[in-house]
Amino acid sequence: MKSRERVQKALAHEEPDRVPIDYWTTPAAYEQLRDHLGITAPETQEWGIMSNWKISEEMLQRLHVDFRRVYMNPSSRFQMKTYPDGTTDSEYGFRGKWFGPYWEVTHFPWAEITEVEQIEDWEWPDADDPSRMDGVVEWARYLHEETDYAVVGMVGGPWGVFEICEHYMRGFDKFLIDLAENTPLAEAMMDKSMEYALDMNRVLLDQVGEYLDIVQVGDDLGHQHGLIMSPRMYRGLVKPRHAQMYGEIHRRAPHIKLLYHSCGAIEPLIGDLIDVGVDILNPIQPLAAGMDSARLKEKYGDRLSFHGGIDLQRAMAERGTMEDVRNEIDTRLRALAPGGGYILAPAHNIQPDSTPEKILAMYDYAAEKGRYPIS
To answer: Burial of 220 by CB count in 10 Å (0-12 exposed, 13-18 middle, 19+ buried)?
Structure first.
């Protein structure tokens, strides 16, 4: 069975020949694996989630990956600056620097804003800048027409309305206080983000939507032990905006499945995410509170597909053994794969302490043991 057919069948809650496989990783873990394998093939494809970098087709095939990705470009008008403290800026006004495998924000452009009018007057970069789609249509068409892979589209702007405010534009502590104590300002920030997201989604989907199988979005709503906000606050302030954003994606491209990313212990909100149009939930972090795979499958598996699930905190971490990795894959397959509706992938980006040998073992064992019927 070809990759696209395999993915589509799984997302229709049917059992294909094997469980589809995806690859999320930090650049450092990828480079270690590439050098271990001695792969020197041209790195021609954009990849990555938290940051974009290049990967080779040879590596994707070696790991049995069923997906290929399409990214919007930053505007050609944007010229990145590096500041004396080592930070670099972004097209959207926030600045940051690399700390280990992640680029973290250190300057928040909305941090000192106090009035709704200041947010309303804020100018985002032009979503309709033609350079954003330079080469993107051709690449998406090629993947759809000339390959058999499932094609995932990634927009260039906000994926949601919460994380863009608290993690990038306003700052975590300030935005959480705004939600509770200055709700009109928080809502203005989320509306400003939503308006820009709607524009960026429009640009992507109107030009390449017919070539995509999945669009990836997200808003981190949880941490290891619980939710970042109460269910009541989510339902009153965030959910209506999610419904508008994700409903518009489905309206513009009804055939597309929506993959939503949120780390952490978000089980109390999964029903709400289904309400707003989420088709696939990632990364179903297995050691987070309340995120037991079997329970999630039993409770939501008839309405939702799952993506991720392979533990990075123990099994794939430095302390995990090869036996731990195999047991982890067996556990997720037994819990999530029966009846379809599961895409096997790491529960976020593979970290640099996952050895190349362990990563290869994960993907090869998953390709072998993920064949239906699951035993």
So the answer is: middle
